Structure formats: structure tokens, C-alpha cells
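Predict the 3D structure for this chain.
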Amino acid sequence: MSETNHAVQRLDYDVISELIAPGSRILDVGCGDGGLMALLESSHGVRASGIEIDQKNVNNAVALGLSVVQGDADTDLANYPDDAFDYVILSQTLQATRDPRKVLENLLRIGRSGIVSFPNFGFWGVRLQLLVQGQMPTTGLLPDMWWSTSNIHFCTIRDFVVLCDEMGVTVERAIALNSGGKRIPFNAPWWFWNLFGEQAVFLLRR
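Done. Predicted structure below.
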């Protein structure tokens, strides 16, 4: 799942922007047409690079003057050196990777910090569709039918927290957004985030 068109700024972009220090070196993994990169370059003066699997998106991003290469997060992140970036961003892409754990390991090897956003499969609207319809749900963040989606590893917010614990990864900040884009209070328990957060953004460090 790649990032959406420049014309539509996703809700997670605002959250990610808050987590980035001005002038940082960033790598946007699964950068789509470079919408987030362009935003961060203009608002934060970052030095942005991107990697994207879809060649059409790569061409569109390069045509806009962005530094984007064609590549696969599952295989090509291994070619980047340690600590090459201040932040490595995986925005709405984790669920489309073949080996999410390995991708996260590379994120936190390449970058001093990692930022990961993803749709929450534990969201109440997803659960309700499964309960009532008995079919794989579709939402604004998960619009494709099960046979045509690029998403192969759905997870819940709770699943992601458990994975971070198993990997010994430190969660520096975590932000959940409901379907209206409003933030769920940080002091809410995880089960509440898992039920009412349609998506989440995590700032991680090793």
C-alpha cells in the first residue's frame, strides 16, 4: 500500500510532521508519489530520500524533483548502512511487507529513530463488518477487496505493541486517531486505542 496522491494529505501526515526535527535526514520507505517527502521538505527543511516499489510513483516523484529510487522494502533496505538517517519512515506500508519484523529491524538499524503508521485491524468498524457481514472488511484506509489488496499482514495496535516488546524496541511516542482524525487521549488504556483507533502512528528507537 503506497502513499496517496499529493492532492490528498493523509491524517497521519500531520502527526508524522510533529515528530520530525527540522533539518533532519529522512528516508521514506514506500513513499508513493512523494507527498510526505514534499511536505517535510517544505515545512521542515529536511533532506529527504525515498524508496518506492511502484515505478510509476517513482517517475512522478522524480519529475517533481524528489530523490526517490525504485526498490522493495523487504529486500533493498539491507543495502543501506547503519545510522544513515535521523528518521526512517514507514507510512501506511507495514501491512504490505512480506516480513514486517525484518523491515522494522532494518528501519531501526538504518535510522536513529523509526516512525511507523498503519491502519488498525482491531478498529470497531472493522470488527463490526466481520461480525455482521462475515466478510473481510473495507474501510477508507483499507479500501480494496481481499483478492486485490496489496496488504498481506494486517495487525492491530495491540499486535504492534507486542511485536515492539518482543524486539526490545522502545516506543517513545504513540498516537491513535479515530475515524474522524481526532486523537485518542494518551492516558487511555491500550484496549481503548485498539477498539476506537482507526490508525496509529508510533515513534520508535532501538
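The radius of gyration is 16 Å.
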